[in-house]
Design goal:
It is a single chain. This protein is an alpha+beta fold. The protein has two domains: 4-65 and 186-226, no CATH class; 68-167. It contains six helices and seven strands. A seven-stranded mixed barrel has the order 1-2-6-5-4-3-7. Strand 1 and strand 2 form a beta hairpin. Helix 1 (4-14) crosses helix 2 (38-58) and helix 2 crosses helix 5 (184-198). It is elongated. The two termini are 24 Å apart.
Length: 227
């Protein structure tokens, strides 16, 4: 396993662009090479990893994709008094909120419901007593917000179980290992393919597509043997 910055350096090596304009070997993923700038190479890597992860998820190749790495807990949050709006320190990193629990009270668990159910007549009569929450898009703030059914006279400290996006890993500042195991060669194949598309090299693109197809087939066979 490796971090995104380590992967960017591996991708730079695969693309034969390991030196900067002065001829110095690049050991910092934020530095530009002669052929590929750091920004462009990061974009290529992210696009390639998105394509690969869709293939792994679609084919249920979970041996090499650790989806549980996307689940994070406990994530501190606050249920605001009178409104029930749930505030997170870093809401932009949240892909989905799975559960909420009041801090220090294991019995005070909030389960998710659809926004249609949350705001329907069915819940209005018991709105202040039930424990559940929903997500919805706020037209005023232009952001997805979360709201609890429980209305309190004071703020409630809580903890959430959330899922983050894969893009959380795809920054040079991230020190977390990406959730892919023992498939670095396949990851680099996807990067090289996307780089060759940009460089208008259809012959090499086709070669890499066949290589990717072969390796995906091997992963499928591996899963069949284990089942």
């Amino acid at each position: 396993m490796l971090t995104f910055s380590e992967f960017v350096l591996s991708a730079r090596e695969r693309l034969h662009d390991l030196r900067d304009a002065s001829g110095v070997v690049i050991t910092d993923a934020s530095k530009d090479g002669i052929r590929w700038t750091s920004v462009l190479l990061q974009k290529v890597c992210i696009s390639a990893l998105h394509e690969m992860s869709r293939a792994l998820i679609g084919l249920k190749l979970t041996n090499h994709y650790n989806e549980s790495a996307l689940t994070r807990l406990p994530v501190p949050c606050t249920i605001k008094k009178t409104t029930g709006i749930i505030e997170f320190a870093d809401p932009d990193k949240i892909y989905k909120v799975l559960r909420i629990q009041e801090a220090g009270d294991r019995s005070a668990i909030y389960d998710p419901v659809s926004s249609e159910d949350f705001f329907s007549n069915r819940y209005r009569s018991t709105y202040v007593n039930e424990k559940f929450f929903t997500a919805y898009f706020n037209e005023d703030t232009k952001k997805v917000e979360h709201r609890s059914s429980k209305i309190s006279a004071s703020d409630i400290s809580a903890e959430a179980v959330i899922k983050v996006q894969l893009d959380t890993f795809y920054t040079l500042a991230s020190t977390d290992d990406m959730p892919f195991m023992d498939i670095e060669d396949l990851m680099l194949d996807y990067v090289e393919k996307d780089a060759d598309i940009i460089q208008h090299d259809p012959t090499q693109v086709q070669i890499l597509r066949e290589e990717i197809k072969f390796k995906i087939g091997m992963l499928i066979n591996e899963g069949v043997k284990e089942s």
